[in-house]
Design goal:
2 domains, four-stranded antiparallel sheet, rod-shaped, alpha+beta, two-stranded antiparallel ribbon
């Protein structure tokens, strides 16, 4: 292989004679410019790898419909808790929890199903933020408050298990509506108090199913988050 007759300055990139000790353009020492070409080619790759963020998770940018469904699902859960509590406590017009026909008590089955839903809700509808073990709790709270101003994103959802979780939640809500419907036709109501409670517990799951269906990710925009919370779109 023929010896190289020219070298490139490592400071400004100007081509110089191989015997030159100083760059003819900037005056920098170019003795180190005779390093193997492979190392020079690998340097930009190494620098890019060193400066690129460490991606740890993906996130779904929630649309307006998904944000509506996210909030509505939480409201439906709170409403179901209130209706169940009023039924068990025999309060006002929602006195339905203690009425029975044989073994068919409205409240116990409803309470069990609602309890499962309350546990599943935060697992399914997880808001994506930097991990607390990486940045601490205070930066996580600040990140949630400033996400819209910083990145133009109002809600960022963790896609892990989202579709499967929504399907399970919808089935559980439908199950609660089925319990209310069954008891509505079988529990003896001497006034309107039992029926009113069961009607409430029939309507809330229907609204909840609609809410969780709105969160279903359709052609979602995916973003990537590094350990510090830096978001990269696409």
């Amino acid at each position: 292989m023929a010896a190289r007759t020219t070298v490139f300055c490592s400071s400004c990139g100007v081509e110089n004679q191989a015997t030159a000790h100083f760059c003819s353009a900037c005056g920098a020492v170019i003795a180190a410019a005779t390093a193997p070409a492979a190392a020079s080619a690998a340097a930009p790759v190494a620098r890019a790898a060193a400066t690129s963020p460490t991606v740890v998770r993906e996130g779904i940018v929630a649309t307006g419909l998904q944000r509506f469904g996210y909030i509505a699902a939480l409201i439906a859960s709170v409403a179901a808790i209130i209706a169940t509590f009023l039924g068990i406590a025999k309060v006002g017009g929602l006195e339905w929890g203690s009425s029975s026909i044989g073994y068919a008590l409205p409240a116990p089955g409803y309470v069990v199903g609602l309890f499962i839903i309350l546990i599943l809700n935060p697992i399914v509808f997880r808001v994506l933020t930097p991990r607390r073990r990486d940045v601490g709790m205070a930066p996580v709270r600040s990140y949630r408050r400033t996400l819209r101003q910083r990145d133009g994103i109002r809600l960022l959802l963790n896609p892990s298990g989202l579709r499967a979780g929504i399907a399970i939640l919808a089935l559980l809500w439908i199950g609660l509506a089925g319990m209310a419907f069954y008891n509505l036709g079988n529990v003896k109501d001497e006034g309107f108090d039992v029926s009113l409670g069961l009607y409430a517990c029939l309507v809330i799951p229907i609204l909840a199913v609609i809410a969780v269906a709105c969160v279903w990710p359709v052609n979602p925009e995916i973003v990537y988050m590094d350990r510090e919370g830096l978001i990269t779109r696409g």
